[in-house]
Structures are given as structure tokens and as C-alpha cells.
Amino acid sequence: MRFLSTLTASVLGTLLAFGIVIFFLFFFFFALSLSTDTTPSVEPSSVLTVPIEGPIPERVSDNPFQQAFGNAPSYDLHDLQQALRNAQSDDRISAVWLRMKGTSASWGTLEEVRDAVVEVRESGTPVIASSEEFGMGEKEYFVASAADSVFAGPQTFFEYNGFASIQPFFKNAFDKLDVEPQIIRAGKYKSAGETFMRSDFSEPNREQIEALITTINDRFTSAVAEGRGMSASSLKTLAEEQAVLDASVAVDEGLVDGLRYEDEVRSLLRDEVGTPEGLDLSTTSVSQYSRIPSENVGVSYTGTGNVAVVYGEGNIVSGEPDQSPFGPSSQVLGSTPLIEALNDARTSSATQAVVLRINSPGGSAAASEAMWHAVKRTADEKPVIVSMGGVAASGGYYIAAPADTIVANTTTTTGSIGVFGLLWNAEGLLEDKLGVTFDAVTTSPYADLFASNKPLAPEERALFERTIESTYNTFLQRVGEGRDMDTSAVNDVAQGRVWSGRDAQEVGLVDTTGSLQDAIDIAGAAAGMGEGPYRTRTLPRPKTFFERLNEQLATQATKVWQSMASTPLERSLWRHSRVLKRVTGSNGRVQARLPYVPDAK
Predict the structure, then answer these.
(1) Does domain 303-587 have CATH number 3.90.226.10?
(2) Rg of the chain's alpha carbons, rounded to an integer?
(3) Are the CB atoms for 390 and 108 separated by under 8 Å?
(4) Same fold, 46-160+244-295 and 303-587
(5) How far is CA 42 from CA 123, 272, 325, in A?
(6) In sequence order, what are the residues at sequence separation of 6 or more whose Cβ sits closer than 8 angstroms to the Cβ of residue 470?
(7) Per residue in 293-329, pLDDT tens?
């Protein structure tokens, strides 16, 4: 009996191991086939289809696993812009079809997309936008209004009713839980944490949010007025007095040219490009068309050098962020890869100028300082132009300060030059409601400063305030040095206040409004590279799927080896060292530990 059970276990184990090997071999060749870069062919009289849907990331993952199973967008903002630029000079592209399917992209990103669409339209290439059964909100219509014709699906939703910023507040909930958020901040406008300590907007916060959405509304209204040949005043009246929530009403008001199903839009495009009777409409997607080198469609570059476009996107943390090869790509801006990319651009003899593309709400002050130093070193040797995406605030502005020129979109959220820290006092919840008590033995009065089971004592609060104020003063100095402003003048426009790109230009935090392409043009001109267009290279180089997989396997192998080869005491010390490294490496001097990150739209 024991022999049979042993034999059965051996056979099952062998089959399982064989199955795992087969799976990884299949996955290896599957990923390899998806990674193969081939230049697609484009038929004459083709239509470039541009789906405006979901997020439009600054950089799309090249992970074949994520792309194959729908965890990553098929194109990024650079792909879209390059495809639209190439379409202007490619005789094979006879029209562009914007397919609106619901987007969550930021207004700054949508400005970049709309500007590229306007250029295509002005080049003489017909542009048609349609929403079909997906309907259309203000974000989709903002882009669609740049087209020659706009169509919506019959019986679809069409939103044209102004803008709002709605923020949840949790003070009453924390009061019921007997939990006290202890927030220390530098700057009266620094509203981070306000959602935990108030039940409504403070007046400074309301002031800055009203200014932000006013900029968005103005930019939206002027764009629609220009695209549709309508007056801004009539559009403002339409939103305020007669909100539009139906596509048929949008047609009546002149916002949309007609109601059409998808097959009817295809028929219109067939007529537009002259597709012979009986043949299907020839189309090419952004993800395919963007792989065609610009030289293949007649674009010639100036000079022999290049402009390095260095991307800094996501929440700022120290070191190298972990990236799973199987999970979705997280938007985390690690200090190590950005610093290495800037050093690469600074020391490369082929790179004449640098564009730092920032799309970050900030994060660790220590990591921001380290990246600021790398930006400054680069700017001391080569022209550095900052291009701001949807948001470049707090730490995102910190690292932008040393640049020679700062370019932002009109609706970019920037500024927020301020610092805050958040500690939790859950004494009431733990002791009064849950019956959990604490006792401690300390070597100094401040050893338990960050404990969450007690309120801050006055002297502890004063100590924490000095740390926050020191970081804030350093922030002011960095901005003053980079912007050639007195620290007092910076403080006047700082105070943690967020600004739109348009308003930031007025107060001296931004030099001009424009797109990423505008920033590249400024960088090339500053480096004396001629009139352009200029060759670019992208940094940091994204890790390939196999590099990330190898790192994950190495990490797992280390864990297995340590679990087998070390004593229980060694394993315990190793686990504690990992926790300590994460905490000290990610947060630096000022720590803000949140149970979650509130989402502001």
C-alpha cells in the first residue's frame, strides 16, 4: 500500500513539474512573439483610428503579458502624438477617425492630444470624431471638438453641464471611531490631510480649487468655441442655463453634427477616402502606426545630436520601486532610476539637451531632494527644459525648480510648495472601544513619538513642527534659486497652494504654457540644434518583461535560500531589516502614513 501511494505521489509530482515546464516554455515563446518588433505596412487611402478611452499614460508598458491579457493600454501619449504627426506627411493616411469610448485621462494630457489633433486638421487631413454607443462627456468632447465633424450615437448620453470638484470628508466618521488625525503642515493652502480633519472645505482650499476648475472651464469653453465656430458667451449660457444631457439636444444646439451608428460613420469615411465599392475600409491603429519610423513618412531631423526626454511619473519614493512582471504597471517615481537617467543624459556626448517630463503629485521629501540635485547637475552642463503633464505639484515641482525653462499645459495642476506630516492618535478607539491598552519602556522622552496610541504632547508637536518647517524652508530655497526669486517672494506664492499652469505662469512659477513637443522645440533651440524637428531618445529605458521576471525570480530564490539555510534568529532579523529598509527608505525625515490615498478629481 505504501509502495502504491509513493508511486502515485511520484507520478503526480513528475506530471506537475512537467506541466510547469511546458507552461513556462509556452509563455516564453508567446511573450517572445509579442515582443518581436516588426514595421507594419499601411495600405493607400487608409484611415488612422484613434480610440480615446481609459487612461492615456505617459508611457505604456512593453510587458507582453499585460498587453495580451488587457492589463495595460495599447499605446501611450507619445505614441499617439507621433502617430498624428506622421499622419500629416504620410500620403497613405487619408483621414483620421477619433473614436470616443470614455476617457479618464487628465485635462493636461487631453490638451496635448487635442493640440495634436488640431495640427492634423490644419494640415488638411480630414478628421472625424464619433462616440457611437459610448456617449460623450466633457473630456471626450474637448478632444472631439477639434475634428472637422462630430457624430454621436442615437439615444446616447451627452454631458455638457459645467464642472465640479467633489471631495469626501471623514472627520465625522473619525469622531465616531474616536480617532484623531494629528496634522502638522507648513503653508495655509496645504490641504493634504484636510479631508481627515474637517467636514467641509476650508476657505483657502475652496479658493484654490475654484481657481483650478475655473481654468479648466475657460480652456474647455475657448477650445469648443474655436473648434465649433461658436461664441464663448453662448456656450457659457448653454452650460449655466440649459444643461445638455442628451445627444439629440447636442445636435440641436450645434455641438454635434449628427447622430450616426458605427456602420454609418464607416460609410462616411469610405466616401471621404474614396474606398472602391465592395472593399472594406482600410484602417491602421495608433499602436501599429506609431511603430513606423518618422523617416519612413518623410520627416527629416536637424543635426546629429538628440534631445533626451526623461520621464518622471508617479508618486515619489526613494530607491528602486518594485515592479511585478505579471501585475499592472504601477505609477511610482523612484529616485534611483530617474537619477541614473539624468546622469546618462548629462554624460552622453550624443545628447545636446534634456526635457524632463514630470507627471507627479509628489511624495518623499528626501527623494525629491536627491532628484533635485541630479536635475541641477544636469542643468549646469546642458539645457534642461521641464514639461509638465497633468500634475507636477509638491515634490513634482521641487524637482522641476532647477530647470532653465518650465513649460506647463494650461490646465496642469502645479505648485503646492508646502510640506505636511500626519500622525494618528487612535487611543480612544483602542482603549475605550476595543479595550486594548499599551505600556512602554523608553530610553528618552521622545522615543515613542510616532506611536499611534497616544496624542502628541506639546513638546513633541513642537519638535515635529521644527522638522516640517525645516523641510519647507529648504523647499523655498530650492525654488528661489531655480526661479531667480527671493525666498520671501516664493513664500508669497507658495504656502502649499496649487495653481493651474495658466495661473502659475502669471505668478512666476512657470515660464510658458505649451505641450511636450513645445518643450522639445525649446530644448533643441537652446542647444543650437537648428530649426528642428529634433531626434529624441527616451529615458529611463523601461525594463523588459524578462528583466523584471529575472529580478522577481532572483528575489524569490533569495527568500527560499534564506528560509532553508538560515537559523530562526537569522530569519527574524532579516525580516525586520527588510521592514526597516522600506520605512526609512520611502519616507525620509518627514513621514506621512495614511491608511489610503484620497482621490481628488
Answers:
(1) yes
(2) 27
(3) yes
(4) yes
(5) 20, 18, 32
(6) none
(7) 888 887 888 878 999 999 999 999 998 876 554 444 5
Taken in order 444, 447, 453, 456, the sign of the CA dihedral is positive
C-alpha cell at 458: 506639546
Note the pLDDT of residue 330.
55
* 457 half-sphere exposure, CB direction, 13 A CA radius: 8
* CA trace torsion 466, 471, 474, 479 (10° rounding): -130
pLDDT digits (tens, 9 = 90+) for 176-195: 989 888 888 888 888 877 88
Report, as an integer, the average pLDDT of 443-465.
86
Q: 10 Å Cβ neighbour count for 385?
A: 29
Distance, CA of 377 to chain centre = 25
> Alpha carbon of 219 to those of 133, 430, 435: distances in Å?
27, 49, 55
Fold of the domain built from segment(s) 46-160+244-295? 2-enoyl-CoA Hydratase; Chain A, domain 1 (3.90.226)
Nine-digit cell string for 199: 467636514
> Count of alpha carbons within 13 Å of 289, Cβ hemisphere only?
27
Which sign, positive or negative, has the C-alpha torsion 16, 17, 22, 25? positive
Give the CB-side neighbour count of residue 384, counting CA atoms within 13 A: 25
For cell 552642463, the residue is 381
Torsion angles phi and psi, residue 14, rounded to 5: -65, -45
Q: What is the pLDDT of residue 191?
A: 80
Three-class DSSP category at 157: coil
pLDDT (tens digit per residue) in 129-146: 999 888 999 999 999 999
Distance CA(411)–CA(315), nearest Å, equals: 20
Please report the DSSP string for 391-427 in residue order: EEETHHHHTTTT-SEEEE-TT-EEE---EEEEEEE-H
Asked whether the beta carbons of 63 and 545 are under 8 A apart, the reply is yes
SS3 522: helix
Domain ranges, ordered by start, for the chain = 46-160+244-295, 303-587
- Report the C-alpha gap between 556 and 302 in whole angstroms: 48
What spatial distance separates the first Cα and last Cα of the chain, rounded to whole Å? 66
The 8-class DSSP code of residue 592 comes to B
What's residue 402's pLDDT? 97
DSSP label at residue 428: I
Rounded CA-CA distance 402/378 in Å is 9
Are 367 and 321 within 8 A, CB to CB?
no
Contacts of 22 (CB under 8 A, 6+ apart): none
How far apart, in whole angstroms, are the C-alpha atoms of residue 82 and residue 80? 6
Q: What is the DSSP string of 298-335?
A: T----SS-EEEEEEEESEEESS-----SSSPPP-EEEH
